[in-house]
Amino acid sequence: MGAFALAAALALPQLSQAAILTGTAGTNTVTDYSGAGLASFDLDLATFTPTTFSFVLEAGDLAGPLAFNALVRNLAGTALDEFSFSLNGIAFFAAGSVTPAFGTVGSTTSGAHTANVVFSAPEWAEFQFGNALGVPGAADWLLDTNGLRAGDTFTITAATVAAAEVPEPSTALLAMTALLGMAAAYKRKRG
């Protein structure tokens, strides 16, 4: 390559081709895997507090819908009943798959700015939102980039709902004994 061609190549603006995770807010651990046309991350849930991801779009992300996937690991020691993603600055284009490790998906609903997963059997380990692990037959969720430009920002907020607390047997037994005692006292009073 001649000196002129090399200088010309270096002088051209470099077009980045990746959705860039610029920051997160929350207490959970995040590992970013985003790339050209893809917003992707692992979310390790140590607590069930919301986590917000801030992204900036680059030129390569605007060629079509932006693929979105996440591997969500439940490290909190509490079962997951529900999980949701909320979008700001971008919208869902098409729904993808949800693949739990041990739980069972009861329903998945999505609108322009939200996707909600309800587990009919709680998830204790992890699940894929989209196709984070490249499983045959699974599909990423798609985000609509129509009308957006390089440099535009958007956020994704992940939120969870813990499984309903089941009372300890001693608490349930105490409550049942109290109810039976009250019923017997009422019966004696009437009779």
UniProtKB/TrEMBL annotation:
Residues 1-18 form the signal peptide. Keywords: Signal. NCBIfam families: PEP_CTERM (TIGR02595). This is PEP-CTERM sorting domain-containing protein. It comes from Massilia cellulosiltytica.
